[in-house]
C-alpha cells in the first residue's frame, strides 16, 4: 500500500470540518437573518489553514490518479468538486447550502470508500 492512502482519513476529517463551517457561515440561521456570509469573514488562521488544505487536497487527488486502485473514487471526488463549483456559481444562498451539503456528503462517501479499500489492502 502506498503512503498516499494514509491521507484519506485526514481529508475525511477536513470534509467534516468543511460541512461544519458551511453550516456556520451559510446555514439556515444566516439565511433567515438575511446575512451575507462574505461579510462575516473567516479568521486569518482558519482561512490560511483552509486554503492550504484545499491546495494539498487537490494535489493529493492528482497524485492518487496514478495509483493502481482507488482511481474511480478519486475521479468521483474531482468530478463532484467541479460540478459542485459550477452549480454554486449560479445559484442563490439557499442553493449554495444545499449544494455544499450534498457535495460534501458524496465526497465523504468517496473518502470512506478509499479508507475501507486501504484497510482491506492492509490485511
Brief overview, please?
It is built from six helices and no strands.
Which features does this protein show?
6 helices, single chain, 123 residues, mainly alpha, 0% strand
Structure annotation, total helices: 6
Mean pLDDT rating: 87
In whole angstroms, the N-to-C terminal distance is 10 Å
- Share of helix, binned: over 70%
The largest sheet is:
none
Please render the helix and strand layout as text.
Blueprint: H1 8-26, H2 28-33, H3 37-40, H4 44-64, H5 71-89, H6 93-122
What does this molecule look like?
With 123 residues, the protein is mainly α. It has one domain (3-122). The chain is built from 6 helices and no strands. Helix 1 packs antiparallel against helix 6 and helix 4 crosses helix 5. The protein is elongated. The model has no long low-confidence stretch (mean pLDDT 87).
Amino acid at each position: 500500500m502506498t503512503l498516499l492512502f494514509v491521507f484519506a482519513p485526514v481529508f475525511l476529517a477536513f470534509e467534516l470540518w468543511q460541512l461544519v463551517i458551511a453550516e456556520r457561515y451559510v446555514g439556515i440561521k444566516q439565511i433567515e437573518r438575511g446575512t451575507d456570509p462574505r461579510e462575516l469573514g473567516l479568521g486569518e488562521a482558519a482561512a490560511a489553514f483552509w486554503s492550504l488544505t484545499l491546495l494539498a487536497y487537490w494535489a493529493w487527488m492528482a497524485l492518487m490518479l496514478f495509483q493502481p486502485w482507488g482511481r474511480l473514487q478519486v475521479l468521483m471526488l474531482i468530478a463532484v468538486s467541479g460540478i459542485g463549483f459550477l452549480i454554486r456559481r449560479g445559484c442563490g444562498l439557499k442553493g449554495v447550502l444545499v449544494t455544499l451539503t450534498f457535495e460534501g456528503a458524496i465526497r465523504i462517501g468517496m473518502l470512506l470508500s478509499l479508507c475501507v479499500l486501504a484497510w482491506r489492502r492492509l490485511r
